Amino acid sequence: MIREDDNLIVDGISASTSDNISKKAQFEQEIKIIESSKWLQDKYTKALMNITDSYNKKVLEPIGGSIDKIYRILEKSTIAAASIYDLVLKNLTILGQKMLEGYTKVAKQFEIVARFITIPGSYIYYWFIKKWSMRARTPILAEGVHLLIATMGGGKSSIMFDVIEELRKTTGFGSSVNTAIENKKYNPVTNSYFRYHDHFDMWDKFGLEEQKNKHDEVRYVATLREQFDPNFLAALVFDEFISSLNRRNNKTTDYNKVFLAIFNLVLHKRHVAKDDLFNGIKRIYFLQQIDALDGLLDASIDYKHHIEVDLDCTYGQWLLTGMLTKNILGWHVWSYKKNKKRNMKKKSNDWVLWKHYYRPRTFETEDFESINMGDFYNNLPQQKTKYNVKVEREGARWT
Fold first, then answer.
1. Which residues have C-beta within 8 Å of that of residue 145, sequence separation ≥ 6?
2. What range defines the domain where residue 300 resides?
3. Taking burial as the number of CB atoms within 10 A of a residue's CB, which of 79, 166, 236, 251 is the most buried?
4. Number of domains within the chain
């Protein structure tokens, strides 16, 4: 019995040992399989990379280089074609210009011949075009120096705003005014306010400037201190001129340095801000309540206009508002010009009535600032008054 048990033990040990050996062999075999598959994978990867590199070098890179060469050739040809096109266009433009100039010269010669061979019938055409060129235009828009006269609230500033608005719409240029007769407008795109016309300070714009001659000698000249912007020179406007430069002060330095500078500007208006597109200041307007200017300036005035504003409430406005609020409907204007038929026995500045007419309002009322001198008085210090009321038998009195 004892031997049989021993054999059983020995057989059990040997069986377990053989199982361990078989598992180990199986594990080693699996490792070899994995290593062999990894080796095959590395070989396949390297072979694939070699094939890819070879395809890239032999196929793709030559094609890319060819495309790049073709692009560079096309680029050079495009630049050359553009240069040739530009050169041809320039030559054709020059040729067309010369042909047009030649045609114009020939046409002018034919026009001269046509005018001569139609004598005396061409005189009728000449008479009509002469009358048309000398027709009576709106006097207040004539080129020159103007003086507008009206009582307080009589319509000087309002008709002036209407005139510069018309000039802006017809010429594309704004005007320069020494008072803020235009209200600001809001631009929602830029989120800012703007004006179509420029506002300048007369005392900053004109004055005495130091100048030196070739001998380095210093002299003071009454002149314009800085140039006006040509975009705002459809007209130059001096509102309430007599209140700023009263001729009673013509012996003071402050008056003379500004007045003489303005007077020099009036004389040289054609030369101010002159360039290829702008031919100086064509219109200068002085606005005041009385017909009284300094002698030098008065002699330089070309036209005088007496203004009477038309304030009324139309039936249509009453229907809309139900109120009899008066609005500016227009202006009655009496325009005068200097008498061309000079008589030496009379004064050289005799004025004759040129035209009496009615000018309807065209500007929007919300764009016009009627109290344009209000800022001057609003900036003054406020008076402080002490009130002391004493009550007496006969009543109250201020002390």
1. 266, 269, 284, 286, 300, 301, 302, 303
2. 136-378
3. 236
4. 1
